[in-house]
Amino acid sequence: MLNKKNIMNKCNECGTENVDNLKYCHRCGYELPKLKVEGIHNSVQKPTKKVDYRKLTGIIVGAITFLVAYFLVQQLLFKTPTLDKVMMEIASEINKSCPIILDGDTRLDNTMVLPSNVFQYNYSLINMVKRNIGY
């Protein structure tokens, strides 16, 4: 880096080198040419930030891949069954052993899952006479 003390201004008339802060040549008195002041501030270039689009694209693709993988793992490994599915599984298990005689007068024929999370038991009354039921 140049120091300001080292900059010399050469006289166009006699060729004598003069210190840069003089307006006239110290030997011949001729007016010295004006120095272009490209001070230290102009000679030092600020670093420009270039966007590396390949790196940015890699980061975006990596983030999207991570999110998709995370979603798939959550859905496949940690998926909790819905209430409808659980109710249907229970109804199927009960229906495997139906019909079941519950007591001397009642038989469980089957179970069903209806909309709005309704679990329905279908019974038959046995050993009953219609006139004794009380309709």
Polypeptide structure, described:
With 135 residues, the chain is α+β, with helices and mostly antiparallel strands. The protein has 3 domains: 8-45; 52-79; 83-133, no CATH class. The chain has helices spanning 40-43, 53-77, 83-96, 130-133; strands at 8-10, 17-19, 100-101, 106-114, 118-125. It has a 3-stranded antiparallel sheet with strand order 3-4-5. The protein has a two-stranded antiparallel ribbon with strand order 1-2. The model has no long low-confidence stretch (mean pLDDT 82).
Features:
single chain, 135 residues, alpha+beta, 3 domains, 3-stranded antiparallel sheet, 4 helices, 5 strands
Oligomer: single chain
How large, in whole angstroms, is the Cα Rg? Answer: 49 Å
Provide the spatial order of strands within the biggest beta sheet. Answer: 3-4-5
Helix content: 25-40%
**Kindly, what is the distance between the CA atoms of the first and last residues, rounded to a whole number of angstroms?**
112 Å
Would you report the number of β strands? 5
Helical/strand content category: alpha+beta
H/E topology pattern: EEHHHEEEH
- What is the approximate shape? rod-shaped
Q: What is the residue-mean pLDDT, rounded to a whole number?
A: 82
**Biggest sheet record:** 3 strands, antiparallel
Q: How large is the share of residues in beta strands?
A: 15-25%
Summarize the structure.
The termini are far apart.
Note the topology.
Layout: E1 8-10, E2 17-19, H1 40-43, H2 53-77, H3 83-96, E3 100-101, E4 106-114, E5 118-125, H4 130-133
Antiparallel strand pairs: 1-2, 3-4, 4-5
